[in-house]
Amino acid sequence: MPESPLTYYTHPGMMTDPKEYSRLLDGLPTSLAELCLVVQGIQVHIFWAERYGLKLSEERQKEVNLRTVVQKLKRIRELDDRPLNEARSLEKRLVGNCRDFSVLLAAILQHQGVPARPRCGFGTYFMPDHYEDHWVCEVWRADGGRWGLVDAQLDALQQRALEIRFDPLNVPYDRFVTGGKAWLMCRRRQENPDKFGIFDMHGMGFIRGDLIRDFLSFNKVEILPWDAWGLIAKEDKDLTEEDMALLDRIAELTLCDTGSLDPTPAFTEMRTLFESEARLKLPGDWKP
Question: What pLDDT, in 10s, does the model give residues 42-87?
Fold first, then answer.
């Protein structure tokens, strides 16, 4: 019988597998609140660093390109070899972004046997009337029998600066719009695609990138926000009707609940598409 969705998201993927550094994740707290403090204590967001009073060199900024948890843990240890639950001084924290906070939290939870998966989409809580490119972590809440969103990036300083009025450990699903939901909203003319993006990058092409990144994350391949090939890199004008049909379908699949002890049709189709659809495959020479 195929692996159940909850079992699948309990095991690490190519990005979240700590491999030889797994011992560093032993003995960490199990509460989400404490784990978010751990993640925040070993990383600093590249775009928020100066708000904390930290000036990053160009060399340190390159740490945001580290894809895998193995690479991250190696660098974290180089900066400060104390246990991960001991918060570092700012200059000793790994430089990352929203994806990195989400990926590291997912890796720790998976190590503890908790189903977790990073999600790519758009936060509505960064600027008014705007959907900001963002990642959060979706965690299975066994006590409630449901998935829930956690924004591990939002520490006390960011919550104050952004005037956050919800619990970052339980982000409302209308405050974080997944790539698939954003795609369908704009395809159905329910929202303006120019409201979605970051900096001067926005529109349907940008949304398409987050849709595919979210789909890949469902398949445990959490690529960097700037990784682009195939359907991500294609110009809007070059998309075929078949391409659009495929994008619509994967958007619908990412909105289906996969919180089941048994394989669901949507989960099975999502895995099959990832394995078989050439337009969604990783490049043959691609390495994490």
Answer: 999 999 999 999 999 999 999 999 999 999 999 999 999 999 999 9
Helix (H, G, I), strand (E, B) or coil at 285: coil
Does the predicted TM-score (pTM) go above 0.70? yes
Cβ atoms of residues 107 and 12 within 8 Å? yes
29 vs 85: CA distance, rounded Å: 8
Q: CA 123, CA 135: separation in Å to the nearest integer?
A: 8
Alpha helices by DSSP H, 179-240: 179-187, 204-218, 230-233
Angle at 115 between CA 100 and CA 113, to 5 degrees: 100
Coil/strand/helix, residue 263: coil
DSSP conformation class of 171: B
Both tokens of 87, joined, read 């918060």
Spatial CB neighbours of 125, under 8 Å, sequence gap ≥ 6: 162, 164, 166, 175
Query: Taking the alpha carbons of 64, 117, 147, 228 in that order, is the dihedral positive or negative?
Result: positive
- Compute φ and ψ for 118, nearest 5 degrees: -65, 145
Rounded Cα gap, residues 103 and 202, in angstroms: 24
Nearest Cα neighbor of 162 from 262, 2, 45 is 45
Residue spans per domain, the chain: 5-280
